Amino acid sequence: MAIALLFFLNLFFAHELCRLGLKRYAETLKFDGWWFNDNRGSNAFKSQNALAALGTPQINVGSAQDEYLTLYGTLDGFEDYYQSLVDSEVTQFVGRPRAHLYPDREFIIYLVGTGHKIDYLRHLGINIVSCHAVELDPEAGTRKQFSQYKILQAVTRIFQAGRTKITCAILAAETGLSIDYIKKLVAGLGGIKAFKKWVLSLYNPYRSSTRFSNPDFLLNQSRIKTWMGLDQVAETKEVLKALNDYGWRDFQEYLEQFTIEIQAEIWAILLPLILPDEVLAIDGRALSDRYKGRRK
After folding, report:
1. pLDDT score for 269
2. What are the backbone angles phi and psi of residue 20, rounded to the nearest 5°?
3. Which residue ranges make up each domain of the chain?
4. Are 5 and 112 in contact (CB under 8 A)?
5. 82/9 Cα distance (integer angstroms)
6. Residue 2 — pLDDT band, cuts 50, 70, 90?
7. Cβ distance 235 to 222 under 8 Å?
8. Hey, which of 56, 72, 188, 248 has its CA 20 to 30 A from 157?
9. Among 69-83, 133-147, 173-187, which is the least confidently predicted range?
10. In the chain, what percentage of residues exceed pLDDT 70?
11. Residue 227 reports pLDDT greater than 70
């Protein structure tokens, strides 16, 4: 996935993207530098418009602990100290284009990895945008996400051809995926009938427009983002709107359109908004047991 994303970014920036990562992958992935070396003090990337760094610069934990024990005689507070070491490496990398020398220019830096904690960079005047690899390039997503995206492409082609019939067999023929796998994927949206009904509700008002000329229109819908594991909060906002429009009476029916996993995630965000902490501690355990039971 990371390789696919780097390939996409390299093409997007017309091969002018400078790439950095861990040294052990430098030759294989043809990096222009590596962590703990070229991300610090180097002017090699000065004025470079676009940089990308793969992975997280994490030094050996054991070595870091030894150093911390030597300094403080205890490991209390070590986690924060270790995170500060990672933050320092990232901050140094962000400074490599020497952006302060070019106040009228915009620089783009990609940090490719999981679990990056970079909000602290905002105080440096950096605009941070967090997204999933599949949102930049479908082939950079997981196998499941890429398959889901192929379904969105298929739906787009079907509508462009003036057709509205959508079945698992038709989607399988359009995507090259098996019918059983199509069924498994759309189950996360309530099944093929619910998926077709929802997509048609989006399509019908815009039959004469170009909205469905690109699958990204569907990709940007909150329900699709949740289905593909891109944005749980967006779906929760949609649920809150449904609650406001229809009331609690229809909430259970609405909720059951989604998989058990998504239902649990929606409740995990909703419950803290309506229950005090002491009740939440009790009901949270009960809710967890309930969903575990339903998955058996």
Report:
1. 61
2. -135, 150
3. 2-136, 142-216, 232-295
4. yes
5. 30
6. low
7. yes
8. 188
9. 133-147
10. 68
11. yes
Select from 144, 135, 248 the least CA-distant residue to 188: 144
Q: In this structure, are residues 149 and 177 in contact, taking their beta carbons and an 8 Å threshold? A: no
Per the CB < 8 A criterion, the answer to whether 9 and 136 are in contact is yes
Token output for 196: 């077709």
Looking only at the bridges linking them, the beta strands covering 50-54 and 108-112 are parallel
Bridge partners of residue 18, in order along the sequence: 51
How many CB atoms are located within 10 Å of the residue 273 CB? 8
Helix (H, G, I), strand (E, B) or coil at 130: coil
Look at residues 90, 103, 91 and name the one whose alpha carbon lies nearest to residue 57.
90
Provide the percentage of residues in the chain whose pLDDT is more than 90.
Answer: 22
Any idea what the Cα angle at residue 4 is, between residues 189 and 135, rounded to 5°?
40
Nearest residue to 269 via CA among 254, 279, 284: 284
Integer-rounded Cα radius of gyration of the chain: 24
Parallel, antiparallel or unpaired: strands 50-54 and 33-34? unpaired
Mean pLDDT of 81-109: 91
Q: Tokens 């990308």 identify what position?
A: 52
Amino acid at 207: R
CA distances from 117 to 80, 86, 87, 126, 128 (A): 12, 9, 8, 14, 11
| Distance (Å, whole) CA 26 – CA 7 | 15
Q: Are 10 and 19 contacting, i.e. CB atoms less than 8 angstroms apart?
A: yes
The continuous run of DSSP H or E covering 34 comes out as strand 33-34
* Amino acid occupying residue 140: A
Structure tokens at 144: 């499941």
Type and span of the H or E element at 112: strand 108-112
**Residue for token digits 């909060």?**
233
C-alpha separations of 154 from 146, 175, 181, 237 in Å: 12, 6, 15, 27
